[in-house]
Recover the amino acids of this structure.
């Protein structure tokens, strides 16, 4: 049997595993509801006469991207670590002894699921903003740019979360770690006000995501390119470390 066939079958199995978890439906529903509700809040409280020139309804969807990111991070950690907590990882590895195949399938399915959730909820939020403020419009070109930017943030965030989950093999540990890296540490370091703390904060994954979504960061030296590079490096290191543990150490 070819490797492509094995990977495809493992991906189908991973899709089934993800969506047999009750937590997956809960997290997806809560995330989508929060993002769409934020879009409604933005649309209903904005004064059409005070909207910045050149703004579109997609801007509201982009602002909601941070809410989607937290839901995606939680969903990614939970789905990556669920069978470690239940002991289901043992039969999983018996059915898929080629651990590299399992790593590719699990990572790909979770990242694709999280990214799709972010894009769909972001598009829905933009539509809600447009319903309240039809004068803003929903130009296709702006939509492609906004959704492409959000897809990058959400995909790298999901990759980071999967890597931490596989490395720690603990849902609680993975959630605490990813929240610390994305939310707590960047804010804490930026608030300290020292040059070194600001520099460190600018290189945290949460700061990169914040910059790409809102265009703001703790350092004036930050650019969109540097923020993308920061997210890519964190995601690569995390999934490399998590993948190494899956491939090289005993699952129990």
């Amino acid at each position: 049997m070819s490797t492509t066939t094995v990977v495809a079958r493992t991906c189908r199995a991973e899709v089934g595993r993800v969506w047999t978890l009750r937590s997956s439906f809960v997290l997806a529903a809560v995330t989508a509801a929060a993002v769409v509700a934020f879009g409604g809040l933005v649309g209903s409280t904005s004064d059409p006469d005070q909207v910045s020139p050149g703004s579109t309804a997609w801007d509201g969807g982009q602002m909601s991207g941070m809410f989607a990111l937290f839901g995606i991070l939680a969903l990614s950690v939970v789905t990556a670590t669920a069978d470690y907590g239940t002991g289901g990882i043992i039969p999983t590895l018996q059915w898929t002894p080629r651990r590299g195949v399992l790593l590719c399938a699990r990572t790909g399915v979770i990242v694709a699921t999280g990214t799709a959730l972010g894009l769909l909820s972001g598009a829905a939020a933009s539509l809600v903003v447009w319903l309240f403020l039809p004068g803003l419009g929903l130009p296709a070109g702006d939509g492609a740019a906004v959704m492409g930017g959000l897809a990058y943030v959400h995909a790298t965030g999901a990759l980071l979360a999967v890597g931490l989950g596989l490395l720690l093999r603990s849902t609680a540990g993975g959630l605490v770690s990813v929240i610390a890296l994305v939310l707590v540490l960047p804010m804490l370091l930026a608030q300290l006000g020292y040059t070194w703390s600001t520099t460190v904060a600018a290189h945290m994954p949460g700061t990169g995501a914040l910059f790409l979504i809102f265009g703001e960061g703790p350092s004036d030296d930050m650019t969109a390119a540097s923020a993308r590079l920061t997210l890519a490096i964190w995601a690569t290191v995390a999934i490399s470390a998590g993948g190494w543990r899956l491939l090289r150490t005993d699952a129990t």
About this structure: The chain has one domain: 3-248. The radius of gyration is 19 Å.
